[in-house]
């Protein structure tokens, strides 16, 4: 090959590499600018519950399950009214993380649950419950009725075996809903069928799986015939039945 041709080819290859590098740098710069404007998609951006759900939201939520300080920082950053209560209990039922949401429509009371469970409840209400209630009934939710959060027991009341997530209030059982127009929706009475109440209950069960680690409904077994079990177990993810 002639030297001139060889130099020409070498210059062409170098120019192509430089152009490719410039294109890649431009893509990276545009990507960083876009992520800065859409932090819900940025895996490195601190989670703020005021942002809409995005590609990175689920991973950020899962990371909070074993990081209570980071979880509480999310509540503070998001300006969520809440109380951090003192630890109580002993052994496997000791509750180190006790967080009580303020201005949240749980009934008959607002129990203290773990911080990750609190955040999952907030997102479920905002992104699933309220839109589903408006779509199905044209009315917002006034009350979310529950059967309790804390219960110092093992799974299914057994004497041995794994402890329930209720043992540390990392779970809550939802029995039904009352809308502002007075409509009542009960898991026990309204789960089965093809009517709007049944469709609503199935929709909010399915939607809960985007926020909670475990979601169990009447479709799971008879023990859940009257409630939706929602928890933030650090042991597994993706149980949605």
Give a quick precis of the structure.
By secondary structure, the protein is an alpha+beta fold.
Shape: globular
Number of domains: 2
Mean pLDDT across residues:
89
Structural class: alpha+beta
The end-to-end distance, rounded to whole angstroms, is 70 Å
What's the number of extended β-strand segments?
A: 9
In terms of per-residue confidence, which ranges show pLDDT below 50 for 5 or more consecutive residues?
none
Element pattern in H and E: HHHEEEHEEEHHEEE
Q: Strand portion, in percent? A: 15-25%
Sheet with the most strands, sense and barrel status: 7 strands, mixed
Query: Any guess at the CATH architecture of the largest domain?
Result: 2-Layer Sandwich
DSSP summary: helix tally: 6
| CATH overall fold name of the largest domain | Muramoyl-pentapeptide Carboxypeptidase, domain 2
Work out the helicity level: 25-40%
Rg? 24 Å
- CATH domain class of the largest domain: Alpha Beta
Essential attributes:
241 residues; alpha+beta; Muramoyl-pentapeptide Carboxypeptidase, domain 2; 2 domains; seven-stranded mixed sheet; two-stranded antiparallel ribbon; 6 helices; globular; Extensin-like_C; Extensin family protein
What would you note in describing this structure?
By secondary structure, this protein is α+β, with helices and mostly antiparallel strands. It has two domains: 1-37; 46-240, Muramoyl-pentapeptide Carboxypeptidase, domain 2. The protein has six helices and nine strands; from the N terminus they run αααβββαβββααβββ. The protein has helices spanning 3-37, 57-63, 68-77, 115-137, 187-190, 196-208; strands at 82-85, 98-101, 106-107, 141-148, 171-179, 184-186, 214-216, 228-231, 239-240. Strands 3, 4, 5, 6, 7, 8 and 9 form a seven-stranded mixed β-sheet that branches. A two-stranded antiparallel ribbon has the order 1-2.
């Amino acid at each position: 090959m002639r030297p001139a041709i060889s130099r020409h080819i070498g210059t062409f290859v170098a120019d192509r590499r430089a152009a490719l590098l410039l294109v890649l740098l431009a893509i990276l710069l545009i990507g960083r600018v876009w992520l800065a404007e859409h932090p819900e998609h940025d895996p490195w951006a601190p989670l703020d519950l005021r942002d809409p759900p995005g590609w990175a939201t689920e991973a950020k939520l899962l990371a909070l399950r074993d990081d209570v300080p980071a979880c509480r920082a999310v509540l503070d950053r998001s300006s969520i009214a809440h109380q951090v209560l003192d630890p109580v209990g002993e052994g496997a039922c000791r509750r180190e993380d006790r967080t009580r949401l303020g201005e949240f429509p749980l009934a008959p009371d607002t129990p203290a649950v773990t911080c990750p469970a609190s955040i999952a409840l907030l997102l479920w209400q905002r992104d699933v419950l309220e839109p589903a209630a408006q779509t199905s009934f044209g009315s917002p939710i006034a009350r979310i009725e529950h059967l309790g959060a804390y219960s110092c027991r093992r799974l299914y009341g057994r004497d041995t075996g794994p402890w329930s997530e209720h043992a540390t209030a990392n779970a809550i059982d939802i029995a039904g809903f009352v809308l502002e127009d007075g409509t009542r929706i009960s898991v026990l009475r309204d789960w089965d069928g093809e009517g709007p109440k049944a469709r609503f209950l199935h929709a909010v069960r399915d939607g809960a799986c985007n926020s909670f680690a475990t979601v169990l409904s009447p479709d799971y077994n008879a023990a859940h015939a009257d409630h939706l079990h929602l928890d933030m177990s650090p042991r597994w993810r993706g149980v949605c039945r």
